[in-house]
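So, is this right?
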Amino acid sequence: QDRSLDFHALCALYAVTDVALVTSLRDGMNLVSYEYVACQGSKKGVLILSEFAGAAQSLGAGAILVNPWNITEVADSIKHALTMTSDEREKRHRHNYAHVTTHTAQDWAETFVCELNDTVAEALMRTRQVPPDLPSRTAIQQYLQSKNRLLILGFNSTLTEPVESSGRRGGDQIKEMELKLHPDLKGPLRALCEDESTTVIVLSGSDRSVLDEVIPLILSFCDL
């Protein structure tokens, strides 16, 4: 007979039950599993839980998980629960009881708010304004006053002229694009390489042979 129980009667039933059988075919949380574990104090009853229940993700380690469509498996699990040793019952109950008593609604709310605040902070960092440009006059003054200077320059798309290309760029494709050093940069780059106080390093994903063809005049001055 299907009938409902009031809260106190339901808690009493949970407390004296040796085995709780939950055979949900589909659900979200299944609070019955949590309520049963919470009411089991010193009795340490066994929870048989459907693997399709939402609670299986959190209480599965302490419960006996079953496929409710498999009648033989369910029957064997009931027998195993009723004949289980006290040590195994103790271990299973201890795991589930610790989870239920620590993962409370208050704990969930605090975790949710904390993660929400972290998300807001990350969003603010992503939308933060770009820092202002480096004052060119100050940068030039400090550059001239320094004794040892290291300049690391990217080659592709930085020192070269713009190249129109569609699709992915492989090593052979880069050669075919015939990269050329930007004409406005030939003089300044050579002057920097000839400066004994300045070390210039050019970084590129292109093959060395490609760079040898593009900048043969300054190859002996730069570290490539």
Q: What stands out?
A: Strands lie at 19-22, 46-50, 64-66, 149-154, 198-203. The radius of gyration is 35 Å. Confidence is low (pLDDT under 50) at residues 167-176. Residues 105-126 form the longest helix (22 residues).
